[in-house]
Structure formats: structure tokens, C-alpha cells
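Re: that backbone. C-alpha cells:
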């Protein structure tokens, strides 16, 4: 490999790292968003690090040149790629010692030490891989995901009491939204924690009134309430993701909101009981405005 190629590779890796560091400093909302995955896109298989690079390049869908060709799209002339980092792994020899019982010439069992060489896979570095934003491609429209969501049956009473409607939608910046005007919850993910987060927004709105948009206090109330509701009702959710989400909005906000969280949780728990799960399949519709989103 020439020195010029090595230098170019290093600069791209350094640029990727700097992009992620900038996200942690200036864009906590994108850090939080990178924790979650979308609707079966190639980036769902990427690392958190690479998904964050993608979001920092202002897109929710990025793919390689040939990946776009496979779905009937082509990269626009003059479009510039950005780079994610792919691990480089190699099999390296490792010497190990093991003990084995053998019969000696005196017909006695003895323990002998045997040294063997085995090959194990080891991470030896990273290589930059060019990908292009959806916005920098043209061609066939991507099929919208029309998935089914499983909403536990016990929440139906709350949905009816608050006059809510639950729909699925394609992923567009948020994995879930609650519209304070139309009382519609839209979900772009089948994960239960997303539904509980938006339901908590709706209950918070019913009890206290909330504003549209990403209001720091409201987001902390919704996420922590969702986690507590899931825990009390015996549902398993990724608590690590919840912790990261709240950390990026601030634990100070959480301490301010304990009483508010308690009222939201109590409202839900008092009206629910673990019974059965109802699978609800709904068509994808275009998201409305005036939403509070995850």
C-alpha cells in the first residue's frame, strides 16, 4: 500500500472519529436516536458508532453504491460519499497448553502437558467504507414498511379513554410520535418501549398538558415513565437504551420530574392488568405535524 493511500485511509478514519466526538458535544439528540434501529435497513446491522456517523451526515438511510443499485436507485452524479468504519479481523496463531492423561510404558496413567497452536480471530484495525445518503440517490421509491405492532390488550382501555388512535408509519427521524392536536400515536418501530414512551406522552398531556416538539422535561418524563411502567408490568425492555436516552437529556431534569412521573405511571398502572397480547396491523400513513417524538 502506497504512503498516499495510507494517509488517505488515516484521514478518513480520523474524520469519522471527529464526527462522532462532535455529535456527543453538540448533537445529543442524534446520539440518543442512534441507540435505536429503524425499519430493517442495512444500517440496522451497523455499530452504534457508524449509525451515529450516518445521522451526523443528516440522513436516516445510507448504503453502498451496489446496495443502492439492488433496490433500483442510483447515486446522483457528483454526489459525495461519507465513510463508516468496518472492522478488519485476522486469524492469528495462539499457543495454548492443555493436560491429557496417557498410559505410559509401565501401564500407568500419567498426566502430560501438550502445547498446541490454534488460530483465533482478532480485531487488528478498521477500514473506511464509502456510503451514500438516500438524499443523494434517485430512481425507484423505497417500499414503505407496513409492519404489525403488538400492543398489549390491557392498554386498550387507556387508548379508548384518552381518545387515542395508534398507527404505524415509515421511519422519518423519529421512531414514534404523539400528536397533541389529533391524539394520534404513530409508531415506526415494533418495539414496546417506543409505544410506552408515546403513551406516556399522551397521559402526561391528559394530566398536565404538554407542548409539541422535543421539550427536554417532557422527553425525560416519557422515557422514564415508560421504563417504570414496563418494569412494574413485567415487560422486558432494553434498560441500557433508556439510560442512554435519559443521560443525553439530563438526569437533572429527571430529578425535577419525579412527582410528574409518579402521576403518569399511576394513571397507567391503575388502569391495566396483565392479560393477553393483541396484534394490531395498521397501514403506513404520512406523519402529521405538531408532534412530540421519541
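Recovered sequence:
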Amino acid at each position: 500500500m502506497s504512503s498516499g493511500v495510507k494517509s488517505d485511509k488515516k484521514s478518513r478514519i480520523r474524520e469519522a472519529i471527529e464526527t462522532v466526538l462532535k455529535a456527543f458535544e453538540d448533537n445529543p439528540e442524534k446520539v440518543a436516536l442512534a441507540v435505536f434501529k429503524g425499519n430493517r435497513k442495512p444500517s440496522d446491522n451497523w455499530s452504534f458508532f457508524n449509525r451515529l456517523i450516518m445521522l451526523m451526515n443528516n440522513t436516516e438511510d445510507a448504503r453502498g453504491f451496489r446496495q443502492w443499485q439492488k433496490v433500483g436507485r442510483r447515486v446522483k452524479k457528483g454526489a459525495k460519499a461519507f465513510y463508516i468504519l468496518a472492522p478488519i479481523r485476522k486469524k492469528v496463531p495462539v499457543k495454548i497448553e492443555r493436560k491429557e492423561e496417557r498410559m505410559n510404558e509401565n501401564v500407568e496413567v500419567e498426566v502430560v502437558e501438550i502445547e498446541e497452536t490454534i488460530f483465533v480471530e482478532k480485531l487488528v484495525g478498521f477500514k473506511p467504507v464509502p456510503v451514500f445518503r438516500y438524499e443523494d440517490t434517485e430512481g425507484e421509491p423505497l417500499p414503505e414498511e407496513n409492519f404489525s405492532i403488538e400492543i398489549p390488550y390491557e392498554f386498550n382501555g387507556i387508548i379508548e379513554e384518552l381518545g387515542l388512535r395508534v398507527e404505524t408509519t415509515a421511519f422519518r427521524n423519529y421512531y414514534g410520535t404523539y400528536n397533541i392536536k389529533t391524539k394520534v400515536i404513530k409508531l415506526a418501530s415494533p418495539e414496546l418501549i417506543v409505544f410506552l414512551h408515546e403513551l406516556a406522552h399522551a397521559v402526561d398531556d391528559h394530566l398536565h398538558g404538554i407542548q409539541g416538539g422535543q421539550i427536554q422535561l417532557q422527553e425525560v418524563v416519557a422515557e422514564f415513565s415508560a421504563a417504570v411502567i414496563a418494569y412494574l408490568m413485567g415487560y422486558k425492555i432494553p434498560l441500557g437504551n433508556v439510560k442512554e436516552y435519559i443521560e443525553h437529556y439530563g438526569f437533572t431534569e429527571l430529578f425535577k420530574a419525579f412527582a410528574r412521573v409518579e402521576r403518569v405511571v399511576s394513571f397507567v398502572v391503575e388502569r391495566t392488568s396483565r392479560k393477553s397480547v393483541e396484534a394490531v396491523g395498521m397501514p403506513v400513513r404520512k406523519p402529521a405535524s405538531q408532534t412530540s417524538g421519541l
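The radius of gyration is 25 Å. The chain has three domains: 3-86+128-139, 88-126, 148-293.
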